[in-house]
Amino acid sequence: YPSEFLVQKITEDNQIPLHLHVSVSLQYVAGLKGNALVEFFHGNIAEVENEELRHLMWSSVLFYKTPNVEVMACVLLSTKAIYFLLDDSFIHADEHQSEFWTKENWDCDNSSFHLSCCFVLKLNDLQSVNVGLFDQYFRIAGHSADHIVTCLTRDSYNTHTFIQQLMAVLSLLARTPSPEPVDKDFYSEFGSKTTGKMENYEMIHSSRVKFIYPNEEEIGDLAFLVAEKMDCLTDLQSLNILLYVLAFQVNHTEGSAPNTSLLQPKTLILTSSDLFLFDEDYVSYPLPDFAKEPPQRDKYQLADGRRIRHLDRVLMGYQTYPQALTFVFDDVQNQDLMQNLALDHFGE
């Protein structure tokens, strides 16, 4: 029986982001309040009778085996496992899913019966948690490719809250400590990595789960990549990444209703001279230990890039978060955005 404060907190968190569409089955879950939500968890999701529901979060998720399919999920953290209640459209979204989800028949004759797929990652199988740049996402990794999933929160607050709750739950696990060396010398004592202290931006929790945070080299690598895409027009030393944010590019499809739009996940990077949109692989990097070869695609792939000096105006919507921004550029006649200009009228 969770406390009233916890039930109230879980109820407040049980809200689907307005800009994302989900199936009827997940809409049903989002409509549950208070004790009804806790009873739903124990009656339909929980695998052990005595586990407690500690945290609930709605987030887009990516699986290591299907890095191109982003799906909405209700993420439930208990004292035993992390449950990902998935949108049922995910099962049919990719041809390779037939191997990943070994179920015989997902179609039901009864139209009022809605099925959701639940992916379970037991806390005992958890090995590491990689936090993305500026806490925009985090990747949870187990011992195999089936046990790697990335949560694209696109919100540093949600990322921070989940990580804090996860650490608290992991502290309850009784795991056998790592064996100590028989004869301790000065160097092994001084260089111990099981003290829980931050070393190389990697924190080893008391449950032996690694929490890995991005270091300055990642920003440097990203700046170098951006400089490459700018065709060496800018000195790398003077290049500053002002903003890194996970966003959606809105593509209005022809023939559709005026209010419907297609959201494509993009990484937006703003420098002092350019605005870039990248297609980023959030789940394959850094490479897990079992990976024998690098992924099929690079971590960052340039989708679009524009000069700030060509920016004519920025249109802002009046809706609440998430905010919609429209960037209007006046460089229509110059289709080759990244061409090397021999004469730069705006620079020295």
Automatic annotation (TrEMBL):
Q: From the Swiss-Prot or TrEMBL record, state where the protein is found.
A: Cytoplasm
Keyword Nucleus in annotation: no
| All copies of domain Nischarin C-terminal PH, residue ranges | 241-347
Residues annotated as domain PLEKHM2 PH: 114-178
Q: Which UniProt keywords apply?
A: Cytoplasm
Q: What does the record list as GO biological process? A: Golgi organization; lysosome localization; regulation of protein localization
Gene Ontology MF: a single term: kinesin binding
One GO cellular component assignment for this chain's record is:
endosome membrane
Q: What is this protein called?
A: NISCH protein
Annotated source species: Tricholaema leucomelas
Q: What is the lineage of its organism?
A: Eukaryota, Metazoa, Chordata, Craniata, Vertebrata
